Amino acid sequence: MDDRATNLNSSVSPASLSSWIARLAGRRVLVIGDVFLDEYLIGRVQRLSREAPVPVLEQTRREYLPGGAANPAVNIQSLGGRAVMVGVVGADETAHLLRQELTARGVDIRGLLVDATRPTTRKTRIVAEGGYVFAHHLARVDHISRSALDAERAERLKRHIFELAPGCGAVLISDYRAGVVTPGALDAARAAARSAGALLIVDSQGDLSRFAGFDLVRCNRHEAARFLGRSLREDADFASALTDLAEMLDAGGVVISRGSEGLSFLARGREVQHLPSTNRSRVFDVTGAGDTQIAVITLALAAGLDLATAAYLGNAAAGVAVRHLGNVAVTPKDLLKALSSGTA
Asked: What is the pTM of this model?
């Protein structure tokens, strides 16, 4: 591993940490992507069903959290930034609930387009707690449409992008492959970012070739391995993958998240660096950790910090996020505490 990356925790002063985190505030980011509502049905399991060999959950509460592309938007707000959301919802109760959750967290939802022909994506997780050290996920049910938008709504989405991009320091694409991130939307994002002088960043779960020319491309190890057609195990594998991806995509930078092993990244004109995970032992739920990571990295880059610093902050934020059930909005206080203690 690169010594500059592995020794960063011990070499950064508290004043520098506070300064970096303070610079995240006030940055305006246009977030474009597939928005979800994450629903949690939480309760206790006391017995097995007589009808089938499955546990019976006695529900005690229900919780809603913004998910998908809405999660990085919420994290941007929580860290003092200004998130402007562009996406698609249906004309249903799920959309109403999602709007409420986003509005309560301060996200600008003027860019949410209504499409009555499709449902608002809702991911329902059934979770048991009580006798477990950690809450136990019993099942997940997704109500989702992955069909592309029709021509009329695709044009309206592009108009939203052009209207809302001015004043943004970054345009973040959050691609969950649910029909919003189309070639037309990407063309609009490129043009709008260029016109606004904004960074163009993507957190992708899909075909990476669609994101050529972006300032930063983030994916996880499985997506990178699938795209390149080879396995990624050792640091040398990730270094080679980053170099190839940066060249193939003409990207300003590439970040590959490695789960419990941290992340690896490459900035144009620099050497590959690796950051170990800041939290391997206190992992409660990995849901949304990547969204938190890209939100922090995006804010940091928009604030003028370099990719090494942005990745360092994003890596620590992801370590905070996995301590909690479901998507979590990391605060400046959370991030500073994690960085100051040397562990997220």
From this structure: 0.91
- Told to judge if 291 belongs to the known catalytic residues of this protein, a careful annotator would answer yes
Does residue 32 lie in a domain region?
A: yes
Query: Any idea what the Cα angle at residue 78 is, between residues 167 and 129, rounded to 5°?
Result: 145
Chain-centre distance of CA 74, in angstroms? 10
Domain that holds residue 25: 3-38+65-122+145-341
Give a yes or no: residue 57 inside a domain: no
Q: What is the CATH number of the domain that holds 182?
A: 3.40.1190.20
Residue 51 within any structural domain of the chain = no
Q: How is residue 186 written in tokens?
A: 């990407």
Q: Which H or E element spans position 158?
A: helix 151-164
Q: Which of 34, 237, 285, 291 is catalytic?
A: 291
Task: Give the whole-angstrom CA distance, residue 308 versus residue 268.
Answer: 11
- Structurally, how many domains does the chain consist of? 1
Sequence-ordered list of residues with C-beta below 8 angstroms from that of 60, at least 6 positions apart, any chain: 42, 43, 44
| Structural element, H or E, at residue 218 | strand 216-220
CA 76 from chain centre, in angstroms, equals 10
Q: How far apart are CA 42 and CA 239, in angstroms?
A: 42
Length of the chain: 344
Chain position carrying tokens 């387009």: 113
Report if residue 224 sits inside a domain.
Answer: yes
- Joined together, the tokens standing for residue 302 give 């928009």
Helices (H) and strands (E) in the chain, counts: 12, 13
Contact 218, 297 (CB under 8 A): yes
What is the block-wise mean pLDDT of the chain (344 residues), using blocks of 10 residues?
A: 43 81 95 96 91 92 94 96 97 97 97 95 91 72 91 95 98 94 96 98 92 97 95 96 97 93 94 81 57 95 96 90 71 87 56
